[in-house]
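Fig. S4 source data, part A: sequence.
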Amino acid sequence: MIKLIKILFILKFGVFLLFFQILNASEKIKIGLLIPMTGSNKEIGQSIIKAVSLAVKDIDDDSIEIYPKDTASRPNQALKSAFELKQMGIKVVIGPVFYESLTYLDEMKDLTFLSLTNKTLDLPKNVISAGINSTSQFNTIKKFLEKNNIEKTIFLTPIQEYEFEIKKGMKDSKIKIFKEYDYNTDPTKLTKQIEEITKYKIRKQNLEDEITRIKNSNEPNKEKKIKRLEKRYTIGNLNFDAVVIADFDESLKSVTTSLLYTDVKPKNKHFITLNQWFDESLLNETDIQPIYYPSINKENFNDYKIKYFNTFNEDPSHLSLLSYDLLGLVYYLSLGSDLSNLNKLFKKQNSFKGKIGIFDIKNNKINHRLNFYKIDEKELIKIF
């Protein structure tokens, strides 16, 4: 069989767009791409196109055809492009990238969309969220807690747009919750909230009372005891073993700083957070180490980054790795099945191993089996 790979570079709106098709005489596997090719997120779209081209090359099947269309990160443009894909006879689409672009896609009932969003609430029935959702992350955290017999875990959730996604993930994972708190991310309010959660003022008063008691006592070596106590900030046990902080970036660091201020330290209580995409800035935050989080497989991610860089001489976006895997997933499901029945395939229990890890498919949902890592003494360490 003669394989023909056609790569087209089209200049549109001043941007070079990479398109590709793999053609042969057999029946085609037509897959649409709904991605931002113009606008402020066009670099993400470019990275996804390149990632999909890598996946096509690795699969090495002449029957795959890819049809990219622009969403411009706007719901109305996403609908227009989806209609164009439908007119071309396409049944399955990778994308859109962003939740906001899904707004009108329930009008395209004949198409199945594998969106890269990790949001799972209020999705159109023909959209399957393929991002690393909160349920996948809490499933992994739950595994760690159970393996280590950690019974009392408190959960800190920011009052933010994604708050309800976090709570849904907790519920769906059936993770054991000792206590749950919502917090305001405003730094002027955050510390006071953490003080209340950790009973800081009571524990601080306990210390002051104990120092006063010893000063007024006839205990031997009381000066040494007082000096030792004066190096502390509080006295009194905390009634939890671990804290899960559902936050990211500087907001995460604000919470951990407040915990340290209230004398809650990661050497005594497990600090756990959500997927940080291997945020290297955390390596230098030694005061909050060890800190734990679920994530994709680091070794696979590094292999992918090297392959991508060697091919395109640039680093990939995180979302491009997901699109690489989704093409493999669609191809896997297409073997022996009609893509027009893809929605039915997603209702059955199924699994697929990709670069990110293992996809678990059931009831029109994708969950990811993630790895679990800790950062300690400036090193990233894989737990499982």
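Fig. S4 source data, part B ends here. The first helix runs from residue 42 to 59.
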